[in-house]
Amino acid sequence: MRASSQGALKKPSVIPGFGLALGFTLAYLSLIVLIPLAALVLKTASLGWPEFWRIATDPRTIAALKVSFGISFAAAAINAVFGLIVAWVLVRYEFPGRKLLDAFIDLPFALPTAVAGIALTALYAPNGWIGELVKPFGIKIAYTPIGILIALTFIGLPFIVRTVQPVLEDLDREVEEAAATLGARRFQTFRKVILPALLPALLTGFALALARAIGEYGSVIFIAGNIPFVSEIAPLLIVIKLTEFNYPAATAIASIMLAISFVLLLVINLLQAWSRRGLSNG
């Protein structure tokens, strides 16, 4: 019985050294991720429950968390739809400038976040190119939550495209042709054949875009306006607490963000595992 359980843990591999590789993985993960997070939680625990609860229920903290998580979720959802469309166009169609467009997708990865924030602010400010066009209609983009949404959508798009694109390239088109032969319409083929195959990758991209948006700072502070209770994000509130040398409050807000982010990503990973299991069973 013991031998069989050990055999289940040690799967055959071309590269030997399971124990050494696992030990290195755990040590590296602990050093880079777990120990810093544990230090954050321990620092927060030193506050005591009453003080932590006072900081967590402060109206300004709640407002900043709502802005950060609410707009981040909305931006990731928008990117999930339009990122899928962009990936579809890049994979399924040949047109002039396709390679150039494909290269442009990665620009938010390489562009410094501060540069992205300045560029978006110059574009959407009331005296910017787009800001001037929508100003006569009473629409204000920069220095509002709409500006935050645009910034987070900008930095999150590549995560969706680059996770969906390889799966779409490997998708067998014969299955689509078979569905069409059996009388399925285009939308039915997409909903019942293509989307289930893309759903795990789409959820992965959504999780990555959401995680990036929640922690984004540089590209947002320039276009947000940073108005408390309106367009102030939680990362900025943490920085403000640090500049005030209020380290306990900064770690408390950071711990709240950590807990909420962990729960969100856990739920997304569970949905991803469920979609993969349904795809394999189907």
Structural class computed from helices and strand pairing: mainly alpha
Q: What's the overall geometry?
A: globular
Number of helices: 14
Give the biggest sheet.
none
Secondary-structure element order, N to C: HHHHHHHHHHHHHH
Helix content: over 70%
Rounded to an integer in angstroms, the radius of gyration calculated over CA atoms is 23 Å
In terms of topology, how is this protein built?
Layout: H1 2-9, H2 18-45, H3 49-56, H4 59-92, H5 98-104, H6 107-110, H7 113-124, H8 129-134, H9 145-170, H10 173-181, H11 186-215, H12 218-224, H13 234-243, H14 247-281
Description:
This protein is mainly α and 282 residues long. The protein is built from 14 helices and no strands. Helix 13 runs antiparallel to helix 14. The protein starts with a helix and ends with a helix. Mean pLDDT is 86; it is low at 1-5.
Summarize the structure.
This protein is mainly α and 282 residues long. The chain has helices at 2-9, 18-45, 49-56, 59-92, 98-104, 107-110, 113-124, 129-134, 145-170, 173-181, 186-215, 218-224, 234-243, 247-281.
List keywords for this structure.
282 residues, disordered N terminus, globular, mainly alpha
